[in-house]
Amino acid sequence: MTTRTLPPKCGAYNVAEEWMEGEPFSWERVHPVFSWYQTGNVNMAYECVDRHVEEGKGDKIALHYFTESEEETYTYKELQQEVNRWSNVLKAHGVKKGDFVFVFLPKHPYCHIAMLAAIKIGAVVGPLFEAFMEEAVKDRINDCDGEYLITDLKFLDRVNRDEIPSLKTVFTTDFELAGSDVSITKEAAEADDTADTVWVDLDDGLNIHYTSGSTGKPKGIIHAHRNMIQQYQTGRWVLDLKEGDVYWCTAHPGWVTGTVYGVFAPLLNGVTTVIHGSRFSAKSWYQVLEQAKVSVWYSAPTAYRMLMAEGDKTLNKYNLYSLRHILSVGEPLNPEVIHWGERTLNLRIHDTWWMTETGAQLVANLPTRTIKPGSMGRPIPGIEVAVLDDNGEILPAGKTGHLAIKSSWPSLMKEVWKNQEKFNSYFPYGPEWYIAGDLAYLDEDGYVFFQGRSDDMINSSGERIGPFEVESKLIEHEAVKEVGVIGKPDPVRGEIVKAFIALNPGYDGSEELLEEIRLFVRKGLAAHVAPKEIEVVEELPKTQISGKVLRRELKKRDTEKAG
Ligand code: PRX
């Protein structure tokens, strides 16, 4: 049995060595870590890659890639050379500082290389989730008139170029190509492996992630190079990354976790990052943990619940002794999962809380702190949180209200692309408090307990889904007259997407039709947003004045029905 009898051999935690509980902390303390503190030259790609090579760590493994049949590594030196080659190709095709470069690739070292190459020449990178289908891709690139896309032939048929007029150049990672696209791998093979870094300002754009709210199309959240301050430091204190660590973040860079804690934070800390290219299965995940000797692992509650459901028998077939620190993000981490981790791996799973907009972790269970199962932890050093009532007044411990963060912190979003109004909406009570949209309470010790969202946003398997985007797709189907989409509680995925639809005359609610509608969303937008459940209703509840569908009412009825 894989029961640990000894505590993990990790020595002291970084945070314990550098900060005393209760001591004030200023982010400026982190600045001297970066080369720009001395040189004034800023670039995230430089801090992630080049500086490690310059500091003599070129032979260390930066990326360790696995699938069920392949294994590949890149040292920091090899990563640097590859990033340089790719950035030379991008530059040769006109990419320059401030341009948007979308990256639509599977989990693979190429995804890391593409992102870093774009960043190295000052472009703003837009990683797209690998499961996005045509409309999701189109909406995002069109919103910011993206001119460049790096993708591969397998994904290319989900890029409808006729409907993305701004797109100038499509780079693909396939060696052989027909047509006018650029094979970035082929040109890179012939390109110089040295390249100049384009120095930028700390507040220049670094990456854009589209994210859902409860209304309207996804919004482009733009982050700046300044984020590295908090991303490095949380990598150090929350993930507890150290020189010898092998670290695996299971998220795809199309989600903010996959970018910040899958690409930036581990590279900033100079550790080895594992990339797993195959689909989820308990067997393949345990195999990666064993084979790569993963020491620090960051995933999401749904994945842990799926592993838990697979049973101890599978887990016990693997040697997971290298693991010393496990973390979770994206959705509520139920105490049952923490207990599973303790029982099977003798490790506590540390919850962390943040959002696309916040750019890095803000609330977490630091490795040195007591965990209260059911709580997301406490604000990390340098961060202050409060719970506010509807008037913006601070509530006492134990009272549920709006989770608020004292503004500002280094990795707070720089802007919402072309949408100042949306940006302002995060500060409804004035500039002092950023309002997350989450409901929570604090206990007497300052631990934060998540209580749900204050809007209609859906969280399925830790993936943030805007009901509006799904409704907009559903309504395009000829059979659908009206629609309302909600998140329905689910024991494994947290929530599933459920759609209520009223049909146009002449359509019945047959299983075939519902399956066709489901497929319509799967193929048009993405599999994870397609409603798992569809209920046909005569009419949808609406507000009297504006006639807007009342999702809240649908949710209430659904809960009552479930009993
Ligand atoms: O509702 C919270 C939930 O995920 C939202 C942010 O989603 P996204 O921008 O996609 O970022 C996800 C990962 C950074 C939050 O407003 N959420 C995030 N972490 C937790 C969480 N809910 C409960 N517990 C968490 N630890």
From TrEMBL:
It comes from Halobacillus seohaensis. NCBIfam families: PRK04319.1. This is acetate--CoA ligase. It comes from the Bacteria. Pfam families: AMP-binding (PF00501), AMP-binding_C (PF13193). The keyword Ligase applies. The gene is acsA. Residues 469-544 form the AMP-binding enzyme C-terminal domain. Gene3D superfamilies: 3.30.300.30, N-terminal domain of ligase-like.
